[in-house]
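Hi R.,

As promised, here are both runs. First protein below:
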Amino acid sequence: MARYLRNRIGQSLLLLLGVSVIGFALMHLAPGGPLAVYTLNPTVTAQDIERVKHQFGLDQPVYVQYVKWAFGLVTGHWGYSFFGGRPVGSIVLERIPATLELMGSSLALALIVGVASGILAAVRRNTIIDYATATAAMLALSLPTFWFGLLGIYVFAQTLGWLPAGGIASTGGGGLLDRLLHLLLPMLVLAFVLVAQWSRYTRSAMLEILTQDYMRTARAKGLGPARVLLGHGLRAALVPLVTLAGLQLPLLVGGALVTETVFSWPGMGLLFVNALGMRDYPVLMAILMVGALVVVLGNLLADIIVALIDPRIKLTHV
């Protein structure tokens, strides 16, 4: 286990290094650079542009800028925003709780509803329940997240007036119920696509497991249907489902970016979109690296959990 973890951590560090190099290069290859916003202002002179370049180190070669940025990232100094001059670390840390709240609640809802509907569809194979879950899953996977978000705002916020159209709380803060009402619609939209995938994968895994000999043996011993299904079948189905959870993290992060933008949810996704429009490179790179770190750690954790729940898998240095 220790050797496996060392190798995986080394691979993860190399992956993060590659992500940082590619991301940094692509951002600096964008037309106009980070100061394009200033150049469009007729009141800003060429001397002002040069002074801003020198202030942020943009007059140095790109590789020098990258080395300084990477050293600052490792040492905890993530630089300063091009617009406002605030430390990037404090800007990102302010947005992380809102993003974790949205992603965590959506993932929990997707796990519960997706696994339950997948098991039900497998048990009731070729019935109206199976066909209904398949149709809903195909619909969720075929349409973009922002479309569901706009539809939810139109139906539940504008037409029915049941839920707020956006934001994390009402003006003045609001109480716990107010925050839950603001969370409900973006959580459902973000979880919808995840539920579809969990439902389909759970159904496929359970259909294969239900035909295994040990399942028939358990039923023949007189065990109840619920104990056979959950105690024997679901545990075996968890192996591909945990792997799927690790693979879904990029989808969850990308979906959170779109959902936060549609609902004006003050998390890292909305911050990324705003920083992208302003070409605030230090903020963009910080969010990119945080997202990459979450995905890498999630996949590593998924591999470890799979090895713990499946005795056939042995973690080695391979």
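And here is the second one, sequence first, then its structure tokens:
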Amino acid sequence: MAIKIIMLVIFFAIMIIVGIYTRKHATSVGDFVLGGRTVGPWLTAFAYGTTYFSAVVFVGYAGQFGWKYGLSATWIGIGNAILGSLLAWLVLGRRTRIMTHHLKSTTMPDFFGSRYDSRALRIATALITFIFLIPYTASVYNGLSRLFGMAFDIPYEICIIAMAVLTGVYVVLGGYMATAINDFVQGIIMLAGIVAVVTAVLNENGGFMSAVGKLAQFSSDAAPTLGQAGAFTSFFGPDPVNLLGVIVLTSLGTWGLPQMIHKFYAIKDERSIKAGTVISTVFALVIAGGCYFMGGFARLYGHMVMIKEDGSIVYDTIVPNMLSSLSDALIGIVVVLVLSASMSTLASLVMTSSSTLTLDLIKGNIVKEIGEKKQLLIIRILIVFFIILSVVIAFNPPTFIAQLMGISWGALAGSFLAPFIYGLYWKRTSKAAVWASFAIGVGITLSNMFLKYIASPINAGALAMIAGLIVVPVVSLISPGMKKEMVKDIFKCYDEHSAK
């Protein structure tokens, strides 16, 4: 217990020191929300990665999908690295930075409002962002609740309050720059931690070959494998179709999430984007690949898994139980690892929510004229509000992490992904097409919550994204486009940068 507490105290002390140090860099709205658009490749890449991967991935997804798909769950981590990081940076990084800088956009709603010349779209984007980031916050805390229950004898509520207070302190003090620097520190912890934990799990089962041999003895009840043994060690696993749905949502979904895209707004220059692409991809490959690879051995711990009265498995208990037999030092590393991932994600979520509400809803709508100092004050107050709200949710968190994640990512990425990508590349994209994408993303997510015509909310989210990518160009071709002069002015930024 002393080892775990010492690790936590050192970790929290670093977070606070960074917040105090970066306070001088948060004197304007642009500095507070975007770090003055001067953030380098290492900080941006780690901020992207640590926001991407939280307790949801480490505790929720790794356990659930490792149990369902065995070692083939590692494909999810590889997909996250290639589709969610490498391609996202290549396709979105440069164009996002250039166009948002040209339009002077600081948030996702701000971008939609300026790119499509629509105040209504800006408000709608802000509302969708605010509403569907809440279940994501709940899913982050739910993962922590399972882990703290395994590692500590002190009440989980005290841990949550401590985490929330410390996150609030450094975000309120230093804004985006404090978040980015702390994300870098937390990312280093995550890299070291996942290597240590994967090594420990393999050693506990006699090494890699021995662990694979044990896993090969299990048979799967998934239809494609017909109950044959060895499915959990096969190349594509027992259920490749549903595995593909998970890869699509967890990888392509990042392309439309406001808290992820925001990282491209703040990066310093185009050279930083090239370096950040490589760093972010390697980070994702180690963290996500390591998490899902470790989860792939979940069946070896089947005797420790919690089962409900109806016979269903409580997936969120799998990873904590896998790690419960590790040494105190390793458990301490795991706690700091997951805490790092979760605090970075929480910081990004509350920053996105508070800046969106202030700049895209309150400013110009509820309050017509609002000075810069007052905007900063409101953003900071809303950060505190969202952290308190997240604590309230955390005290009684919903039970199924992956469902919450699927609902949040499905609605956000299903709504924003297609119009954002087409908006960066295609001049013909219309306002009507953006509204159609919003209707599809929110419509599929909400209707499936109640009607459950798609068994998995993850597959529903993947469907919403793919549908948006098809509907946006179709609706754009049959609906009125924007004024040619305005579109020409928006896209001239790319020509100007290419000429430099």
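A quick note on the second one: The first helix runs from residue 2 to 21. Let me know what you think.

Best,
J.
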